[in-house]
Amino acid sequence: MQVVPILLHLVKAISSVRLYIPKDLRSLDSRQSVGKSIKEVKHRFPDGLLC
């Protein structure tokens, strides 16, 4: 996992699904934790988050 800044106007949609994001994402463990959470959301919503 990598933290990549983006400009707000490039965001096309926002989902109501929320994930806990650690305050500090510099450690590999923190980024891997977020990656696991994202993977679980993708597993639970195979058709995507937007309806």
Structural class: mainly alpha
> What sequence of helices (H) and strands (E) makes up the elements?
H
Give the overall shape, derived from the CA principal axes.
globular
Low-confidence stretches: none
Rg from Cα: 12 Å
Characterize the largest beta sheet: strand count, sense, and whether it forms a barrel.
none
Mean pLDDT over all positions: 89
Total strand segments: 0
β-strand percent reads: under 5%
Which bin fits the share of residues in helices?
25-40%
Distance between the termini: 27 Å
How many helix segments? 1
InterPro entries: Beta-barrel_MTR4
EC number: 3.6.4.13
Enzyme class: hydrolase
GO molecular function, one term: hydrolase activity
Write the layout of secondary structure elements.
Elements: H1 28-44
Pfam families: MTR4_beta-barrel (PF13234)
Protein name: Exosome RNA helicase MTR4
Domain Exosome RNA helicase MTR4-like beta-barrel: 1-49
